[in-house]
Write a structure and sequence with these properties.
Layout: H1 2-10, E1 15-20, E2 25-28, H2 30-36, H3 46-51, E3 71-78, E4 81-89, E5 94-101, H4 104-118, E6 122-127, E7 130-134, H5 136-142, H6 146-149, H7 163-176, E8 180-187, E9 193-204, E10 210-218, H8 220-265, H9 270-297, H10 303-306, E11 308-310, H11 311-326, E12 330-335, E13 339-345, H12 348-365, E14 370-381, E15 384-393, H13 421-431, E16 435-441, E17 445-453, E18 456-459, E19 471-475, H14 479-491, E20 495-499, H15 502-507, E21 517-521, H16 529-539, E22 544-549, H17 554-557, E23 563-565, H18 570-581
Helix pairs in contact: 8-9, 9-12, 11-12, 12-13
């Protein structure tokens, strides 16, 4: 009887192996011997047999087989063939092992199907809008059994208000045969709405007809949590925002208080009183700006982007206020690049806030004397015109590891800062269709680049002037050089005002009736040439400049057509004057 049983097992296409309690193989049929080239006469354990081909543990699973868990399946690859190994518990002393050839394509198809059943996401197969398959996870989430949904319309599960949009998405995917990411909401058996972040794409069934594969991760709880966190975040950010505004309000009040004290001490000087009244008015305007900003934080940012500001005139009108806030040790330079007017989105309170924020940050970064430059350039990009505003300071710079954090809310390296200034500035610039970038080098300073849509722009038309129509302001501290240059320039017909220092220019500024060109030493004893140039530009906006210097490194800092290196010839000087003026 046993002999007949062995003959039957030898005819099987499935390998059969019997293992005893010490892991020795006590029987193997013909198929098993062929697969493993097995000779039982030498006493072989299942461990030594399977160790050659797979993980050592795959042959030692006896301890995992129990009456409660009587079967374990594994796969084994031998050359180009794949086998399914099934361990079965017979008793405490015996394990039965089956080894079966597996058609690889069929096996992996079965494996993929099993994988779909175990995935922790919802998967649906739809044909002509009907549910042909849903995985176990979908059953669990929606509370339905598969039999209740198979053959039903998928749209019966969709939240009513989303049906039109989802049908449109499905049609586009079916027609164009492309993948599409989308959000959708399904109503479960209890009537609860569940929101999914999903994807759908096209596959084909056995009849080569199109089917939709719809998969989704449920995000209902996450969205609810996000809404709660948004409320908390907004409350926290609003509190920090208010603290920052209180700090700004106090600064405004302190400035007004200082102006009133100055007026009190200068009661007999009408011009000084008028000056401080003007500054007080502009400072109080910044108070109003802060109030507007407070209101803008609590409502949609739509009205501001509809308004327009002529930014060149705005900066000229506010330069005195900005300079006062920067302080006497920091000089504000303006470079309009021959722009006479430039209209950009945003009202004046919006731009006053933006510039005050940058000035405040630059002031904190500059230790002692320094410069803040506002440089304006126009550019075209993809057929659109933009105004680029470079805001450059000579401060301590920003460490590289902070550059990607400075626009994030609440990030700050200052003790008394809310960390919201640059965050709000970036949001405001983005809201009017612009963008902002930053470059910085520790020890050399920081440059912010603001790109905003340019609504309208006008440039100064430079006229070709004859020498006798050109007025030159010559500033040179060495008397002999100054007098020689004056004679040479006047011999060519130029009108020349001469001064020995920055102080000399300030004290006699009212005597200069017209100025087309400044020729100045780059480094005067009491003032930098750039500061002197900016001072004259406030009275003569169209004035140009040529700096005289022996410092070759100045060529790296200044435009080459604005610098002439010492020593120079008279021919070089006249050529440079013509180049600049014409």
């Amino acid at each position: 009887m046993e002999l007949k049983f062995e003959k039957i097992l030898d005819r099987l296409d499935t390998g059969v192996v019997v293992v005893e309690k010490n892991y020795f193989i006590i029987y193997a049929n013909r198929k098993a011997k062929e697969i493993f080239d097995l000779d039982l006469s030498s006493g072989i354990t299942c461990y030594s047999l399977f160790y050659q081909y797979s993980d050592p543990c795959s042959g030692c699973v006896k301890e995992f087989l129990t009456p409660e868990k009587p079967r374990i399946k594994l796969t084994l690859s031998l050359g180009e063939k794949t086998y399914l190994i099934e361990y079965s518990y017979l008793s405490e002393n015996l394990i039965l092992i089956f080894i079966k050839d597996v058609d690889e394509e069929s096996y992996y198809k079965s494996l993929y199907f099993n994988l779909l059943e175990k995935l922790p996401i919802s998967v649906f197969l739809l044909k002509k809008g009907k549910i042909k398959y849903l995985n176990s996870f979908s059953e669990k989430l929606l509370g339905y059994k598969k039999q209740e949904l198979l053959g039903k319309s998928f749209m019966d599960l969709v939240y009513p208000e989303e049906k039109f949009g989802i049908e449109k998405t499905f049609n586009v995917v079916l027609i164009d045969e492309k993948e599409e990411d989308f959000m959708f909401s399904l109503v479960d058996k209890e009537g609860k709405t569940r929101t999914y972040l999903g994807r759908c794409f096209v596959t084909k069934d056995l009849d080569k007809e199109k089917m939709l594969v719809v998969s989704g991760v449920e995000v209902t709880e996450f969205l609810g949590f996000k809404q709660k966190m948004d409320v908390v975040h907004k409350t926290q950010s609003f509190g920090n925002f208010l603290r920052g505004l209180v700090h700004d309000f106090n600064n405004v009040l302190q400035q007004v208080k200082d102006y009133l004290k100055q007026m009190e001490s200068d009661l007999n000087n009408p011009q000084r009183i008028e000056k401080y009244l003007t500054l007080t008015e502009k400072t109080l305007s910044s108070w109003i700006d802060l109030n507007k900003l407070l209101l803008d934080y609590t409502k949609e940012f739509k009205e501001i982007e509809k308004k327009r500001t002529e930014i060149i005139g705005f900066l000229k009108n506010n330069l005195e206020l900005f300079q006062f806030i920067a302080g006497s040790d920091i000089f504000i330079q303006l470079d309009f690049n021959y722009l006479s007017s430039a209209w950009i989105p945003g009202d004046e309170s919006f731009w006053r806030y933006i510039f005050l924020n940058f000035i405040s940050n630059a002031k904190d970064a500059i230790d002692g004397e320094g410069t803040i430059s506002f440089i304006f350039r126009t550019k075209k990009e993809e057929g659109k015109k933009y105004l680029t505003i470079f805001i450059k300071d000579t401060g301590c710079g920003i460490p590289e590891e902070y550059l990607d954090k400075i626009f994030k809310p609440f990030f700050t390296t200052k003790e008394k800062s809310s960390g919201l200034g640059l965050f709000l500035v970036k949001n405001h610039i983005t809201n009017i269709g612009g963008k902002i970038e930053v470059e910085s080098e520790v020890g050399r300073g920081t440059t912010f680049k603001i790109f905003v849509p340019l609504v309208e722009v006008k440039k100064i038309e430079k006229e070709r002037r004859k020498p006798e129509e050109t007025f030159i302001v010559l500033v040179e501290d060495e008397e002999e050089i100054r007098e020689n240059l004056k004679k040479i320039l006047e011999s060519e017909g130029y009108k020349v005002y001469t001064f020995s220092s920055g102080k000399d220019v300030k004290e006699n500024l009212s005597k200069i009736e017209k100025a087309d060109l400044l020729i100045s030493d780059l480094h005067l004893p009491d003032i930098k040439g750039g500061e002197l140039y900016q001072m004259l530009k406030q009275k003569f906006p169209n004035i140009d400049v040529i700096f005289l210097t022996g410092d070759i490194f100045a060529l790296a800092e200044l435009p080459s057509n604005r610098v002439i290196l010492k020593p120079f010839s008279i021919t070089d000087l006249f050529s440079k004057i013509k180049e600049v003026l014409q």
